[in-house]
Amino acid sequence: MHRRSRILLLGLATVVVLAFALVLILDRPATRSGSSAATAVDARASSGFDGALLPGAVSTPDFTLTDQRGQRVSLSQYRGQVTILTFLSTTCSPACPLIAQQIRGALDELGTHPPHTVPVLIVSANPAADTPERVRRFLGEAVLTGRVEYLTGTLGELQPVWRAYGIVPSLLGNAASPHAASVLLIDRSGQKRVLFEVEELTPEGLAHDLRKLEGSR
Fold it and tell me: Which residue of 19, 50, 84, 209 lies most exposed, with the fewest beta carbons within 10 A?
């Protein structure tokens, strides 16, 4: 066989191999991350909730802290009401202001102006920084003044609460962290029901799930 013919045959074989490899790549199943995302979407669709539905019969640990007006507030006093619980800091940015604004948007969506019917409890993740003045400014900028309870206390009071809810204050606001700020919805019986991670949170989704929990018995 002439040298030129061998070169042509080798080139043709190379083209065939590359074409076959391309077909395999294009025809293979979606990546693991894509499959996980699709599974998460399917799970939400089947549950009817926009947030992540949590396993049933998981009670919320009770706590008593001090609100921005100096009043003692307990989680248990809201038993019988669907309640929003989140852990924020006035110095955590951009996640904490974003979450506060999304909560305000959900309250607006529900038409729950004072006296509001959906209790919102924000527990401080940085009591040293969350001074009364900073809390007032934070709530004012988020248009949440008079619409939420911003709870704080001593480290001795707050640390057991952080541990009970899996909060790591030093990682708050870090979207790459599994302990990043999130929003928990508690049903009337005091059970953890729905969790919104910051990247999934929208006013419409939050309002939708609040209505769904309020409508369930």
Answer: 19
